[in-house]
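JOB MANIFEST
job_type = single_chain_structure
chain_count = 1
residues = 237
[input]
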Amino acid sequence: MSLRIMAIGAHPDDVEILAAGTLARYRERGHTIAVCILTDGRLGAPSGDPDDVAAIRREEAQAAAHLLGAELFWIGQPDGMLFDNPETRSATVEAVREFAPNIVFAHDPNDYHPDHRAASSIAMSARQLATAPLFATGSRPLSTAPSVYYMDTLGLVGDAPELWVDISSTVDIKRQMLWCHKSQNEWLQNTDGIDYVTFVDRQGQIRGLQCGTSYAEGFRAARTYPIETGCNGLPAL
């Protein structure tokens, strides 16, 4: 069965950090992938014109999506001011309807960043409303709501995963996607002394240790109604 997989992230590099290896495994098996970014990333620099920063970050996100062979949906809400409001909810519903995913990856509702927490709420709202016939957007309502899996938290803070995906075979493409976000690596190196890719690698190695592989990404299934697919875990990869 060919699947359609959408990952919804708050910022232009969130999906790469938390789910790129898993998305690459799906893509290798012929499934169709989309990345939906809710904010414009304009706060992701120590200085400069926020509009210029936002433009750079969109270019970086597009380059990463191209490496994955994924379609990019850009919602473009202001970085740091993401809320589950009517405008953002409607735009995200339209993206979900247009792509029609079987599975959605979303932020953990308890992740560290307020935009991440808002993005989690928006994804769940869009998942539900995408099937509502009287909720009008440019695309037709979905007949079936997608399954939702929460991505890991940054720095492994919070609830432990319930599901792990071995990304040992796709960690190189994950690194390449992260390197597309050059502005973020430079910023973190200059301000915090953190190497972007090394930091993410360490997280993947820890999750891999927990499930007996070199690298892994962790997820939790969203407990929600309606349960449309009957799946208790991620499709086999």
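[summary]
The CA atoms of residues 201 and 215 lie 8 Å apart.
The chain has a mean pLDDT of 93.
exit_status = 0
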